[in-house]
Amino acid sequence: MLSVNQFRANLKQYVDLAIDNHEPLQVSRKNGEAFVVMSLEDYEREQETLYILGNLSLMEQIQSSLTTYNKGTGHTPNSDELGF
User: Fold this and answer.
1) Which of 61, 70, 75, 84 could be 79's S-S partner, Cβ–Cβ 3.0 to 4.6 Å?
2) How far apart are the C-alpha atoms of 78 and 74, rounded to whole Å?
3) What burial class does residue 67 get, using C-beta atoms within 10 Å of its C-beta: 0-12 exposed, 13-18 middle, 19+ buried?
């Protein structure tokens, strides 16, 4: 975790690291509060994941697909469906 002063002094470097490494960067303030810096791409991915995990219908569809896949009974697309 970085201090806000370290973050401020090297803002571009730390933002580039967060974007390039796809890892959130934790920054702490003197009063103990903290915040996270992350790329927009990573933030949107996290939001999408949270949406899916919070959507019971989608989770049931995923579970059903996983079950049929593991049993080998799922749909096998033909070459037209694959675009060949």
Assistant:
1) 84
2) 13
3) exposed
